[in-house]
DNA sequence: TTTCACTGAGAACATATGTTCTCTCCAAGC
DNA sequence: GCTTGGAGAGAACATATGTTCTCAGTGAAA
């Protein structure tokens, strides 16, 4: 029997996230991807077939292991508390590195439908989760009754993307945490 | 005497914006840049020296001709009216194509200090302009007295970046206009 | 211990791509 | 009209980069 592969696919995908975050898709060259993952060229093409397919798998791995748990906080659907929890976790996550999904959307959204689809799906999910939390918060008089739920949710969704961009430029994210409070404050009941 | 150059530098830079918006920096190859601008290879390297220097000039041209006029609306400093004017113009601007500066920041912000600097400068300018408008609005009782100006301004700044990302995914931007109203509504005095 | 299917490392390859060079042609001055 | 310095188009070049191939080495099974 042959020896079995030494690399751990999950670990490789996780390591690749950093390379793609730093240099983008086209800027991340195979040599660096190979060098910075517990991987080798042969295994790479046996496993993924191409750099593009590799991207999709990294992206899905990223969504599943890193974004899902954070969005999951929002889907706890505990009203304003969930919204706060979500933003806290998200700010911590994008701190100093941004969001891989957002980066891929802005870099290749025009050319790559698969990336665009994942982006739309993610934004839809955020939007729906925000609406759920805001509904519950409104029922419990945590937020003003006169706000439009859908618009406010879309606003929060935009805000999340803005964080991802700012995080690339801002070393620390303390000010982003402050901004979160400013965002949610005016929504609250007096 | 030789004949003089036929190309119009300003026009070339403007045409290049679209190419870079569509494919990003690394994704935009010289062949397409040459083909889609009133330009030729020789003139290109005589004028810019390299693709990277070219990017900086396109970026500055973009900032000067497209973003400046929009941020200028905010710097009119007419309180909430200016904020509304700004968002209207910005939403129209990013509609279906996004923002070149934001795209460059997310694609190469980690590697390119010059891009990062331009991004920071732009965000600072937005932040200051928002603060100015909010101050004035507060003095005129257009917005609640209990909001923190800096945090709210930072929140609006983040929101702007979020627009740029959403615009890549969302074909139409009507819903973004709606969200803006929802954003500014809760800030207003009762 | 021997076998051998498969791994890992990197050489090799083909193509893509940023950059430079060549050559023809034009238009302003004589 | 002739000259000529620079423009325009694209061939040519060198390198970068995604992909494939080769081959020695390894570890489980017999």
What does this entry look like structurally?
Chains A, B: Keywords: DNA-binding, Transcription, Transcription regulation. The structure is a homodimer of 190-residue chains. Chain A is built from nine helices and no strands. The first copy, chain A, is mainly alpha-helical and 190 residues long. Chain A has one domain (51-187): Tetracycline Repressor, domain 2 (Orthogonal Bundle), CATH 1.10.357.10. Chain A is elongated, with a radius of gyration of 19 Å. Chain B binds a DNA duplex (30 and 30 nucleotides) through helix 3.
Summarize the structure.
The structure is a homodimer of 190-residue chains. Chain A is built from 9 helices and no strands.
Q: Topology, pairings included?
A:
2 copies of one chain form a homodimer.
Chain A: H1 9-27, H2 30-36, H3 41-47, H4 51-75, H5 80-94, H6 100-108, H7 113-139, H8 149-169, H9 174-184
Helix pairs in contact in A: 1-4, 1-6, 4-5, 4-7, 5-8, 5-9, 6-7, 7-8
Chain B binds a DNA duplex (30 and 30 nucleotides) through helix 3.
Keywords (chains A, B): DNA-binding, Transcription, Transcription regulation
Protein name (chains A, B): TetR/AcrR family transcriptional regulator
DNA-binding region (chains A, B): 29-48
- Uncertain segments of chain A: none
Tell me the fraction of residues in β-strands of chain A, as a range: under 5%
Let me know the number of strands of chain A: 0
Summarize the main sheet of chain A: none
Helix content of chain A: over 70%
CATH class (first level) name of chain A: Mainly Alpha
CATH topology of chain A: Tetracycline Repressor, domain 2
Protein name (chains A, B): TetR/AcrR family transcriptional regulator
Keywords (chains A, B): DNA-binding, Transcription, Transcription regulation
DNA-binding region (chains A, B): 29-48
Domain HTH tetR-type (chains A, B): 6-66
